[in-house]
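Consortium newsletter contribution from the modelling node. Members have asked for a concrete example of what our holo predictions look like. Here is one, prepared for the adenosine monophosphate complex that several groups have been discussing at recent meetings.
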Amino acid sequence: MHTVTTVAALREQVAVWREAGERIAFVPTMGNLHAGHLKLVARAHALADRVVASIFVNPLQFGPGEDYESYPRTLAEDEKKLARLRVDLVFAPPVEEMYPNGAGETTTIRVPRELTDQLCGASRPGHFEGMSSVVARLFNMVQPDVAVFGEKDYQQLTVIRRMVRDLAMPVEIEGVPTEREPDGLAMSSRNQYLGAAEREKAPALYAALSRAAARLAAGETDFARLARDGFADLEAAGFQPEYFEIREAETLHPPRTDSPAWAVLAAARLGRARLIDNVEVSSPA
Ligand code: AMP
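And here is the predicted structure:
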């Protein structure tokens, strides 16, 4: 495995594999890798001959006052983990390589607002525009056959699928179930912002989502009430909830009683950390 930092070096390597007729899978990350990221790599291996991972903390998807500066950057350790998993190539570009005209001056992609302005987009204006723009740019650089994303970032995955469909991008999108700590907390680079007492409380997020999912699975369809109860559960557990919502699975449209499946999604602050998580549930009907 080796690491490249320029688009030219990336393309040179990828061209060799393409010439040999090999299939390429791509795993985009912001680094500070944990077992969730590593699961994406394992899936990527199962889907292709070669695996490219990127490590790039994308300034375009962070809002003012968010954690862009303090986001944990651990390239050397990440490289060791990826080498152990036999990743073929790591692409770790500096910001200037990704945005030669400056991050603020780059061309961006805006997926329709009905999808990107709700849920996390409501409190993070510009986040999904920044995220879809960097993913599109990375896709053009790597030109993978398949790209692997975590279901942990459910809205992100939905936005990417929509972008790929709307722009006819020649890449398959693969979703991987969320990797969790033994107590249910979804793994995240941002969990390290939690103090010891907060870490004890943190599994209550997944517990609240799971309770709502169990009620849906048992036939309850008063979505507004389920959302209110979930929000209250989070407050009672010591979180400052941002949202607790039920949506139709996959589309993130408002839930209908005859939807085949739903997603229960929440974002909540706990101390310095902003945690997100979700649970999908099939309709019992
Ligand atoms: P990030 O480095 O946080 O931007 O995440 C990179 C990729 O890893 C995204 O596709 C995430 O959805 C995915 N990911 C993050 N946490 C998890 C997790 N706990 N389980 C599975 N995938 C995850």
